[in-house]
């Protein structure tokens, strides 16, 4: 990563320089659109060179994206229930709905690129899969049948850095396979999480903003995908205010317990951005479209009790007894038969799994455009130059 100068340097840019910077961004984004046909062909060839089998679920995703990219929305008659393989392929393609060909091409390219880079990063590292990572900004503990993943950047209100996104993915993957029965995400300090660390936008790689948007898209797709596919009961213990992506993800948790000090805030429009974490689908479903719009479009902040009344939060506890009450409750739940819990969770989530993955892809495509926009650039600069708080 080249350490960035644009946010700092741009404070002293003239309006002309700023507009030429933005024109350059627009030009780069058009170039990326034109390049994507070629990128797609390269990715199709790259797929054939993968050494590891990516697994059936991933193959179905790739199949669906390939068909959508080359033929558009699913136009085949639905196969019979006994033709299991054709039906799984059809379901996967059909779940992409009217996703534009261009977006499907782009998603296919990114998915293949993430598969190839994870393959090359694990090459030459014997035992890399089994090694337990040490996390810099997470504390992961396993006790009484509960794996607790605690965000641990209290002085930065647990804002999520790019490293943290990756670490949370690793921690969730490990928790999904360990012998605990329940997994809990919580925060250390007075905040649950203040969302995406806005400094993530200042790490510009050598390929510029275009490459940064692509990298962020890959990271975010994988990150949200892990929550969609998490196999065990997943609980959020929201110990304090929650902002941005830490709020939207709550729609993918099975239980959300909140302290009465917690608030729920998604200031996407203020940041020139748009919803993620599948909230454009889960929030209207949970609280109805009118309430969801007030949060996701206008950035209305909810108290814990309001969020509970809207169905986003399961139960609110007084802050003074939050930790004691939540952990006592969870310890009791963790003794329930684990396989029955997993089966019930999967039955609940499987109904809409493909829809959630398709929503994740569409939200990320929209965000890639937002990240390149003047509205987003200005909002991030304003926060980082201490002009605004959200
Ligand atoms: C890989 C890309 C994926 C992208 C996924 C997209 C996600 C979308 C979102 O999550 S949008 C939400 C982004 N979050 C915000 O906009 C919140 C910004 N923060 C604030 O508005 C405030 O800091 C606050 C309201 C959360 C807390 O205010 P308070 O006055 O109580 O505390 P401070 O502002 O003094 O914060 C203490 C220090 O923490 C730093 N900090 C807090 N949040 C963030 C953040 N999100 N990004 C970066 N830094 C953050 C803050 O700057 C202070 O740092 P300092 O002590 O060095 O000054």
From TrEMBL:
Entry's localization field: Mitochondrion; Peroxisome matrix
Gene Ontology CC annotation, any one: peroxisomal matrix
MF GO annotations: delta(3)-delta(2)-enoyl-CoA isomerase activity; fatty-acyl-CoA binding
Source taxon at top rank: Eukaryota
Keyword Transit peptide tagged: yes
Catalytic reaction(s) noted: (3E)-octenoyl-CoA = (2E)-octenoyl-CoA; (2E)-tetradecenoyl-CoA = (3Z)-tetradecenoyl-CoA; a (3E)-enoyl-CoA = a 4-saturated (2E)-enoyl-CoA; a (3Z)-enoyl-CoA = a 4-saturated (2E)-enoyl-CoA
Residue segments, region Disordered: 116-136
Known EC number: 5.3.3.8
InterPro entries to which the protein is assigned, alphabetical: Acyl-CoA-binding_prot_CS (IPR022408), Acyl-CoA-binding_protein (IPR000582), Acyl-CoA-binding_sf (IPR035984), ClpP/crotonase-like_dom_sf (IPR029045), ECH/Chromodomain_protein (IPR051053), Enoyl-CoA_hydra/iso (IPR001753), Enoyl-CoA_hydra_C (IPR014748), FERM/acyl-CoA-bd_prot_sf (IPR014352)
Sorted UniProt keywords: Acetylation, Isomerase, Mitochondrion, Peroxisome, Phosphoprotein, Transit peptide
Domain ACB: 36-121
Listed pathway(s): Lipid metabolism; fatty acid beta-oxidation
Principal location: mitochondrion
Family recorded in the similarity comment: In the C-terminal section; belongs to the enoyl-CoA hydratase/isomerase family.
Function: Able to isomerize both 3-cis and 3-trans double bonds into the 2-trans form in a range of enoyl-CoA species. Has a preference for 3-trans substrates.
This protein's name: Enoyl-CoA delta isomerase 2
Lineage per the UniProt record: Eukaryota, Metazoa, Chordata, Craniata, Vertebrata
Encoding gene per record: ECI2
